[in-house]
Amino acid sequence: MTDVAAINQDDVIDVRAMSKLRWRCRRGLLENDIVIDRFFKKHAAALTVRQAQGLSDLMALSDGDLLDLHLGRKDLAQVDAALVQDVAVVEVLKMLREKPERLL
Known about the structure:
mainly alpha
């Protein structure tokens, strides 16, 4: 068993934790799944423990609120004021909102 206190928040998450996080991120709305899949394709290899927790906190939101955040129709304060203070959540939301690279 890993000592939780010994985990550095800036360490990259391990394969098992990534698998659990991907499972936790499955959503009911296809639009959310598309954005989250794009996020994992771009950031999975370097996702830190802190960022994984921020993503997990975002996944506690409803599908509608999550989609509104992705699309910028709402900001965190409108959805959950407590999350505005969470630096990891704010960072991950910015990563989720990154525009996809253009296809040739």
